[in-house]
Amino acid sequence: MEYGEPFFELQKLYSLIAAGLFEAYKNWNVRLENIAFKQNPSNLGEVSLSVALPGGRYVLNVGLAATSFIVSNPYWQEAETIQKAAETGISVVRTATGVSVKSQRATLGMHLQAVTGQIAEFPGELMRVDHNILPGKGSRGFGISVYKEDLTWVVDTSAQFPGGLFMKIDRSFEPKVSLGEIASRLNEDEEKLFDLLGLEVE
Asked: Over the stretch 85-103, which tens digit does the pLDDT of each residue have?
């Protein structure tokens, strides 16, 4: 979430926001040790507060110009829980600072590995250029990318899983779009991309 304008009252970050997040996340078992400020920021763009919810998979980052909510290894069955956790933190920030929302952005990234065989060559079926005319040895994999004004799709070989794929969906949204709608759109994008590649995910 990008603010309409940055806020420069640092005491709000270190007092009102920190206290508000501590109180708001009590039901999530957040303790003082779960809240941290970035040490020795070199400029105002680096000034931030982070709240790591127990387990470490959910992290809220609050800066002077934007707030982000990061989830590691998410699955769609927990979408409602993620939405509630993100809304809780964002509400505290907006109440404490009075900032408006300029835009919202959601990114979904994943590494995919085949149960058997390799899937790195799947994007090659979508290529219009005959890769066999290129010099060098045989291709180990392929990548595709699409860049629109409000959407980016990237598919590339996975650095984590040999023979696997890395996929990233990045979409921007208007300020009034709810987090539930954002999650729904990302889910639709994911399904469309899987269909395009001919992939089924367990």
From this structure: 999 999 999 999 999 999 9
Is residue 97 a contact partner of residue 12, using CB atoms and an 8 Å limit?
yes
pLDDT digits (tens, 9 = 90+) for 100-110: 999 999 999 98
13 SS3 class:
helix
CB-side neighbour CA atoms (13 Å) of 195: 6
Model confidence pLDDT, tens digit, residues 28-77 = 999 999 999 999 999 999 999 999 999 999 999 999 999 999 999 888 89
User: In this structure, is the dihedral angle defined by the CA atoms of residues 187, 188, 192 and 198, taken in order, positive or negative?
Assistant: positive
Count the alpha carbons within 13 Å of 173 in the hemisphere toward its beta carbon.
19
Q: Which residue has the tokens 């709000």?
A: 12
- 8 Å CB contact between 82 and 74: yes
Kindly state whether residues 84 and 110 are assigned to the same domain. no
Are residues 85 and 24 part of one domain?
yes
Domains of the chain: total: 2
> Do 94 and 157 belong together in one domain?
no
Give pLDDT tens digits for 148-177. Answer: 999 999 988 888 887 788 889 999 999 999
Helices (H), the chain: 10-11, 18-24, 79-97, 179-197
Print the domain residue range for 141: 104-202
**Looking at the structure, do residues 16 and 72 belong to the same domain, yes or no?**
yes
SS3 content of the chain, % helix, strand, coil (to 5): 35, 25, 35
